[in-house]
Amino acid sequence: MATLADSTPVLRDGNGAILNPWMIAVTVALTTFMEVLDISIANVSLRHIAGDLSAGQDESTWVLTSYLVSNAIVLPISGWLSSLMGRRRFYMLCVALFTASSLLCGLAPNLAMLILFRALQGFGGGGLQPSSQAILADTFPPAKRGMAFAVYGITTVMAPAIGPTIGGWITDTFTWRWIFLINVPVGILSIYLTSRLVFDPPHFARQREELKAGGFKIDYIGFALLSLGFGCLQVVLDKGQQEDWFDSGLIVALTAVSISALLFLPFWEWRQRHPMVDVRLLLQRNFLVSNVLIFMLGFILFGSTVLLPLFVQNLMGYSATDAGLVLSPGGLAVLCFMPLIGMMVNRVDVRHMITFGILCNAAALFLMSRLDLQADYWSIATLRIVQGIGLGFLFIPINTAAFAEIPMVKSSNASAIINLFRNLGGSFGISLVQTWLTQGSQRHQADLVAHVSAFSSRTTDALAELSRAIASQGGTLGDAAAKTQATLYAFVQQQASLLAFLDNFRLLALLFVAFLPAVYVLKRTQRHR
Fold first, then answer.
1. Which residue, among 325, 329, 331, has the nearest Cα to 309 in the 3D structure?
2. What pLDDT score does 363 carry?
3. Where are the alpha helices (H) located in 109-182, listed in sequence order?
4. Are residues 124 and 140 in the same domain?
5. What is the number of other CB atoms lying within 10 angstroms of the CB of residue 181?
6. Which residues pair with 134 in a beta bridge?
7. 259 in helix, strand or coil?
8. Would you say 412 and 83 are in contact if contact means Cβ atoms under 8 Å apart?
9. Distances from the Cα of 514 to the Cα of 51, 377, 511, angstroms
10. What is the CATH number of the domain that holds 518?
């Protein structure tokens, strides 16, 4: 790779022709967008999948779990696989596997086959995110890396926001099978563009030759520890609430296996000459702190993306499509502000940008905790827009700080680790907010019921008024009394659920603020003009 006077790389294909780095950025972002979209797009279609394939609702959730488990296994070792196979070849293999398995998912004749094909899709998709980010990190010089990460950020932040909307619309308009089949033409286009535009940089090719010459050995124990640790952890997070957490023997056993494997993993990998996960990178302060912050970002991004649609659907009567439209303006805000943030990252201290992003998100989430059931669409959508802007001020600066001191030969390993932390944050966020929501609703319902007493004049007056209103519409006094009790119980449940949602929004806001001190543990990064 030659360089011009302004330090902009001159990228060439196999025939020596000059390549446009922005075409490479769009190429790798294309399939990554579809892969991240597939994490959330199937959520709203589970009921349709279960009905069409004659399966139970609980069984259909394995469509999500199988994808997440295989994704979690491949993601941390994608840097190692890139070194072994060559990044371009590995990326194209991932795209091909993702595309072929998407086609098979769309044609699956039964639930068992669909779960198998989703696992294959997860294996292919697991290598796309880190490979894309590593390609961008090597394609662009530090001075333009912020803009490159802006392109990547649009795919990883916007896709989860619009996934439920697109999934709901496709399922309602066509059939659930098309949420998988739409990946096929995109994947074919990506394979063609990748074959023409993406090539391994010279330093990466040299590293691969050195590995071959040095007697490269596969770390089977490391792979087993990774598979057990992250695979079992993902099942625990995805099935924990459904199985009543540690009251389930399965969850206890999987948690024990996961903790044991993940505790032993870093000690094993530290001793390996060619580790599957290069844990030594975490000794660099900026990279370690950036991973902590990206975990927090994933936790709150995915957690709030689950909460808000549930809030408007369960309590305000929104349809699935309308609930998705509440999230969409936030995605558009990301789309509009990412390029601006990408330009700012070389002119403003990234620590100040991250602080602004945290405060922006915390403010939006705190205001969400003040919502009531009379809030209109734009009141909620505006807060999501504010949150979307804040997410942009987090994603690009955090990634820029993470890669600031990483050698180019380590970019694939670093990308695998930081994407792993972001995905783990998302899995923890989705799992815990659902648990907090269930437990919070139960707690608030118990508190409210304690105040609904037959000895309370306010309660008896309200019941009498409600009973008269129901009786005036026809029916016997006995029917009116039964309907009055049912209406009162439904109202208590609704208010308990509302309070639980508001508690969750408030808790996420406090979690954001709690991470503020970690921002200034980051070292000031060198600015590139």
1. 325
2. 92
3. 111-126, 128-139, 145-153, 159-173, 178-181
4. yes
5. 16
6. none
7. helix
8. yes
9. 44, 30, 5
10. 1.20.1250.20
Q: Does the predicted TM-score (pTM) go above 0.85? A: no
Is the pLDDT score of 12 beyond 60?
A: no
Within this chain, do residues 413 and 303 fall inside the same structural domain, yes or no?
A: yes
Please provide the distance, in angstroms rounded to a whole number, between the alpha carbons at the two ends of the chain. Answer: 20
SS (H, E, C) 297-344: HHHHHHHHHHHHHHHHHHHHCCCHHHHHHHHHHHHHHHHHHHHHHHHH
Domain of residue 242, residue span: 217-273
CA atoms within 13 A on the CB side of 272: 21
Most confident range (mean pLDDT) of 67-81, 208-222, 285-299 is: 285-299
- Supply the mean pLDDT for the chain: 77
* Structural domain ending residue among the three candidates 273, 292, 307: 273
Residue 5 pLDDT: 32
- Looking at the structure, do residues 364 and 383 belong to the same domain, yes or no? yes
Q: Which of 225, 257, 273 represents a domain boundary (last residue)?
A: 273
Q: Which two tokens stand for residue 442?
A: 């139960």
335 and 472 in a single domain? The answer is: yes
Which of 153-167, 221-235, 283-297, 412-426: highest mean pLDDT? 283-297
Q: Are 320 and 313 in contact (CB under 8 A)?
A: yes
Tokens of 49: 């999948």
Neighbours of 527 (CB within 10 A): 13
* Residue whose entry in the numeric block shows the structure tokens 């490269």: 216
Q: Are residues 221 and 348 in the same domain?
A: no
Structure tokens at 258: 């996961």
| CA atoms of 378 and 384, how far apart (whole Å) | 9
Residue whose C-alpha is closest to residue 503's, from 447, 452, 422: 447
Specify the amino acid at residue 431: S
Residues 233 and 290 grouped into a single domain: no
Spatial strand order in the sheet of 2-3: 2-3, 9-12, 18-19
pLDDT tens profile 376-394: 888 888 888 888 888 888 8
Here the contacts of 216-223 (C-beta below 8 Å, separation 24 or greater) are 216/84, 216/274, 217/273, 217/274, 219/80, 219/269, 219/272, 219/274, 219/275, 219/276, 221/268, 222/265, 222/268, 222/269, 222/272, 222/275, 222/276, 222/277, 223/77, 223/276
